[in-house]
Amino acid sequence: MKFAKLFLFSTILFSVMNCAELFQSKKKKDNTNALLAALFVAPGCGSSAVSDASGNGTRYTFTGCSGDVTTTLRAFGFTANAVTFGGGLQGTSAGSTIVTNASSLSATGNDSKAGIEITYIMNQADSTVDAMIQTTPSFAGPGVQLSPTVAQWLDGAIAAPFLTTPSSPWSSSVGVPKTVCLEVHKENSNGHIFGWSIPCNLANRSTYEFEQEDATITGGITDGRIGLKINKAVIQSITIYTSVLGLNNSIQ
């Protein structure tokens, strides 16, 4: 009789504990869903479709974001490291990074192409933003390094002046937002990097403002993600295009 009572008590206790655990899981899931729902309707924080003179894509706006950076950016499809929210994505060094969780490239035959638009603010005279376009998760790939005055092309982590079409100095005062338009094509085994120091929908897509042909691509392009290194700067938004930006003749 005692054994039967003990067995009954154990069964009831186990059932109550399971119910509590299920309730907590449901509550946690509901809280997560509520958080994500609030996130995507927050002014100045979220993703939106873009369709303009430069093509189609998705814009990710960070100016109104707050709270946990890792959770928020994961919901946007990015992995983040050493960044915080404050009028956008605040970075303090080359170790402050974001990278997409999957490939963002369009591909035709042996060619793959990626175009982005970035609106950023440089916090200091020595601030930089490395836009790694067609990168791997470890940031091995070609791209463009932006400073308050000029752009350089990136062969992996090494920045050098554009040679095919040199980048002219521009005025991008510290603390003032600036928007640039950038694209990288993988053409056969080489890279074609180019861009403009203005928004994509204002750019003359048949004439590149700065350009590097036959770029050696350290490590190759094996993944196709978009990544940013945010050194003493703020990223207000990034637009990733699914259509090709450049219309000028490209290398083959």
Notes on the structure:
The protein is α+β, with helices and mostly antiparallel strands. 19% of the residues lie in helices and 41% in strands. The chain is built from two helices and 17 strands. The strands form two sheets. Strands 1, 2, 4, 5, 7, 8, 13, 14, 15 and 17 form a ten-stranded antiparallel β-sheet that branches. A seven-stranded antiparallel β-sheet has the order 3-6-16-9-10-11-12. Strand 7 and strand 8 (111-122) form a beta hairpin. The longest helix has 40 residues, at 2-41. The protein is globular, with a radius of gyration of 23 Å. It starts with a helix and ends in an 11-residue tail after the last strand. Residues 1-24 have low confidence and may be disordered.
Quick overview:
The chain is built from 2 helices and 17 strands. The protein has 252 residues and is of the alpha+beta class.
